[in-house]
Target: RNA polymerase sigma factor SigV
Amino acid sequence: MFNRQPKQEKIIAEYVMQNKESFYRLAYSYVQNRDDALDIVQDSIQKAITAGTLKDIQAVKSWFYRIVVNTSLDFLRRRKKVTVLDDTTIQLHSPSHEDHYHDMDLEQALNSLPIQYRSVVVLRYFEDLKIEDVAEILELNINTAKTRLYKALKILRDQMNDLHLEEVRHNG
Model:
């Protein structure tokens, strides 16, 4: 259990503390509940401290993101609820974050995406991670991550177009 060097533990703790808002935002994007997101981050920290699975200290970013994603998915499996993104709350907890979309149609479209597509979109665009990092965090081949992102964007585009056409018909 204590096979990790104290220096490595310190690096992990510092990294997590410096980026706790991002991890909270990520967890919240999965569960849409403040308390549950905080619990997920706390559980993730506990798992990171006790896991001893970090082989390369340079990979701490993707390693801890993976822990948060997996802990969030485990939580959702246990609770059987899958919802993503409450933009107002995300912005409240991240004043430095510059995304200001207030498009309820987009939020609904994101919520309707299957989890494997939603995860790629959230990590790539809301956490602003490179596709290589997304693939590593989700333990996917990079081509699989690119394909899922492409499919997710196509689904979102189609849904947004359908909503727009329906709105034009309704208002026209």
Q: What stands out?
A: The chain has nine helices and no strands. The radius of gyration is 17 Å. Residues 106 and 160 are 7 Å apart (CA to CA).
